[in-house]
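Example for tutorial group B:
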C-alpha cells in the first residue's frame, strides 16, 4: 500500500530519467494529472496521456541529458508544509519551479504568486 502517491510518481520519473527511458507510466489520479500537466506546460516533459487507469508521461531529453535535473518532495504525509503567497520559494535561483496545491487548484509557484494564493508546497523541480 502506498502512503505517498506523489512521492511515488516523482520517484518513478527520477528513476526513468536515470535509466534513460523514453516513457514512464504512473497510476492515475486527479492530483497526478495536474502535476503532469504542469510539467508539460513548463517544458519538463514531452507529452502526457491519461488512459483509463494510468498516466503515460513521455520524458524529454536535451542533447542526451534529462530535462529534469532534480526533483524534491517538500510536503510529506507526516510533515505538511504550507506557504503564504509571500513565502513561495525561488527554486535554484529561478531556474526551477515549485508546485503548490491551492484553493484554486494545483499551480506552479509563479502562477500562484500572480494570483496571490498560498497553499501546500508539494514539490520542487529543476
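The residue assignment follows.
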Amino acid at each position: 500500500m502506498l502512503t505517498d502517491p506523489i512521492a511515488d510518481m516523482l520517484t518513478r520519473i527520477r528513476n526513468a530519467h536515470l535509466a534513460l527511458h523514453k516513457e514512464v507510466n504512473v497510476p492515475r489520479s486527479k492530483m497526478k494529472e495536474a502535476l503532469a500537466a504542469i510539467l508539460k506546460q513548463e517544458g519538463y516533459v514531452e507529452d502526457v496521456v491519461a488512459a483509463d487507469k494510468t498516466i503515460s508521461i513521455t520524458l524529454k531529453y536535451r542533447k542526451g541529458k534529462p530535462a529534469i535535473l532534480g526533483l524534491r518532495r517538500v510536503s510529506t504525509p507526516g510533515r505538511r508544509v504550507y506557504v503564504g503567497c509571500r513565502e513561495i520559494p525561488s527554486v535554484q535561483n529561478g531556474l526551477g519551479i515549485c508546485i503548490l496545491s491551492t484553493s484554486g487548484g494545483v499551480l506552479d509557484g509563479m502562477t500562484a504568486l500572480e494570483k496571490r494564493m498560498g497553499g501546500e508546497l508539494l514539490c520542487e523541480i529543476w
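Residues 71-125 form a domain with the Dna Ligase; domain 1 fold (CATH 3.30.1490.10). Compare this with the pattern of hydrophobic and polar residues in the output above.
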